[in-house]
Design a protein that fits this description.
Blueprint: E1 8-10, H1 35-42, E2 46-54, E3 63-72, E4 78-81, H2 83-86, E5 91-95, E6 101-103, E7 105-110, E8 115-119, E9 131-132, E10 143-148, E11 156-167, E12 180-183, E13 195-198, E14 202-210, E15 218-222, H3 223-235, E16 246-251, E17 266-272, H4 277-280, E18 288-292, E19 295-299, E20 303-307, E21 310-311, H5 315-323, E22 330-337, E23 340-347
Parallel strand pairs: 9-14
Antiparallel strand pairs: 1-16, 2-3, 2-5, 3-4, 4-8, 5-6, 7-8, 10-11, 10-13, 11-12, 12-15, 13-14, 14-15, 16-17, 17-20, 18-19, 20-21, 20-22, 22-23
Length: about 375
Amino acid sequence: MKSFRIVVFSFLFCIVGIGLGISELKANPNCTDSISELFKRVSPSVVFISAVSIDPFKVINRVKTVIGSGFIINKDGLILTNSHVVFGRHVIIVTLDDGTKTVAKLLGADPVLDLAVLQIPTPLEGHPSATLGDSDEVQIGEEVLAIGNPMGLEQTLTRGIVSGVNRILPESTLSMTLPLIQTDAAINPGNSCGPLVNRCGEVIGINTSILMDAENIGFAVPINIAKQVIPQLVRQGRVIRPWVGIHGRLIKEETLAILNIPLVDGFLVETVEPGSPAERVGVHGGELPITIVGTEFLLGGDIITEINGQSLDNPEKLIKLVRSLKVGDRLNLTLYRALKTRKLEFELPERPILMGDLPADTPRELLPEVKSGSKLSNKP
């Protein structure tokens, strides 16, 4: 994809597609319903979420309530929402479209993708559920609707267009592994994980973030990414991905020729996560910050020239290679530094939840033990 040509990258995860048995119904094939009719059709599946956390180490302001949105994805009461709304909370309360309040159970959450799945009790007639669309078919300029609970104002509808696709947020820990949908439909705090809907009434994205210093620049996680991880969140309570533990960028030798430093084509390692497999085998990160035409580089670290015998000469090849990795695979790295080449080999463990994955206000004492295979749960 064109937007993937950004050079910053993090070795974080591989998503494995899994078949789904949820919301496979097709929306109105003519897509001619009015916006009012679309709202009436979709809004019953949209819920208001209020989550409470308690910090026992504070004397005042120890209780915090976080609000957000979510939407029901099947008649049995599975709800898709954002991890930052429900992760590590003591109690999660869901308010349905008809005003009914119920305690929800956290089945699984992934702070890396900022997605979570809740379960609520199911009435005999089942729950109204949203229809999931195909985010790969989203086009710039098509009209979209955002439904959610901004600032606690329940069942609010905003309207806009798709302003861009495959948008990459430079400050995101996902870096270029998570292309987002950009929209100018108004999204405000409380809209988190409300649905972004096309004119057919299909959910094409999960509203997840905004640019605070801009006006009407919001982002949504493509629904196809959520489709891939929902089964893992339900069954395992987490997304299982391998852990390498390095961050950096692809470089070309001529890119930094101006510095007159001996470099080669490959992946420049800028930082190494503490305790990661890469750190344990001695991969080195950068130490010298240099800014060239507004882009900051951390030089002095290793340059990975090959992974499992494959040269790293373009972003598409790197993405495909990283996404093919699985827990338990052997990783062979060829490294270059200070005019010397060396080889390293190690087995990939499961990536744990890291503190950098979490919002700054997440109460640390509420988190599960940070280790491979930890399962997430709330205390309903």
